[in-house]
Amino acid sequence: MALLVEYTLKNAADHDAQAAAMETLCAALKALTDRRFSYQGFASEDPLRFYGVLQYDDDAGKQQFLDSAAFKTYQTGARKRLAGPPKTTPIRASGSSL
Q1: Which of 1, 13, 30, 98 is most deeply packed, by most CB within 10 A?
Q2: Per-residue confidence in pLDDT tens, the chain, 98 aa
Q3: For the chain, which domains are there?
Q4: Strand bridging mode 37-43 / 2-8
Q5: Is 42 strand, coil or helix?
């Protein structure tokens, strides 16, 4: 199970702050033990757009991500940078080289 998350910034001047926040989020999530999910953040060529990919084993794994202190801290800071709530699209893996 997975979600594609699209983040849109209000202002391109916040690009570096958003990139740093996503790096901090990923580092904090990586430090968690017994994770039932993975999360990757991506910057796009459009300075207003960032993407995240959340992969999880089951609904409990998704909830573990949503309830994590790392995600809650990220959300608090992101609210002032984002144009609105992130857009989420359910996706599924169809192949990987990992």
Answers
A1: 1
A2: 999 999 999 999 999 999 999 999 999 999 998 999 999 999 999 999 999 999 999 999 999 999 999 999 999 999 999 999 999 999 998 988 87
A3: 2-91 (3.30.70.100)
A4: unpaired
A5: strand
